[in-house]
Design goal:
The protein is mainly beta. The chain has helices at 47-55, 118-123, 181-186, 209-216, and strands spanning 2-6, 12-17, 23-25, 30-33, 37-42, 62-67, 72-77, 82-88, 94-96, 101-105, 108-114, 129-135, 138-144, 147-152, 157-161, 165-169, 173-178, 192-197, 200-205.
Amino acid sequence: MKYTITGSNLQFVNCEIEPGETLLSNAGAMVMMSGNCDMKSKMEGGFLAGLKRSISGSSFMLVNYTAAGGTATVSLAGKAPGKIYDINVGDGAWITQKTAYLCSEQSVNLDIAFQKKLGSIFFGGEGLVLQKLSGTGKAFIHACGDFNVVDLAPGQVLKVSTSNAVAWQDGVKYDIASLGIKNALFGGEGLFVTTLTGPGKVIIQSMTLYDLAMSLYPLMPKDNS
């Protein structure tokens, strides 16, 4: 499947679908498609798979796009200002934050993943439930802000502000570390940071959706009555 990612901070992924290929996406991700693109909502993997997708922040049913004669095109986008990143899951599975999945080839398996440590669940910023992408082919994830992709060497540690880790390869160790009471009170970062230990790639976002909402909240109209 050929594709391009266009735009700056409100990006599209534009996919060319050949006869015999199928693209899957979350419900509501499609922005435009060619007239010969066939779109059908299906419960991929059955009821249990759909339930797990719902828990992980994706849609219960996935939308299937196929070509109805010749090459079809479809453009998809996220629901907030941010970036789209392409992942080749054939090189290894990825763990992503909840709601990061946007679309993928049919050979990609979207499953639920859980934090393994209690401290990471409560203080890591990503919560208990995560998404896991495995199988073969391309998957596309979306999150708010700009992305910084870091390739960690074995044993290399990266400390990240809580909730800013978008995705990491399955071999990367995810944990938390304390910044100390003084830094928590005056440093503006909270008591804990996320630690990611290599080897493997990690994707960090410059702004979370929560941060974006909080920055806009003071500017929103208020009902003075």
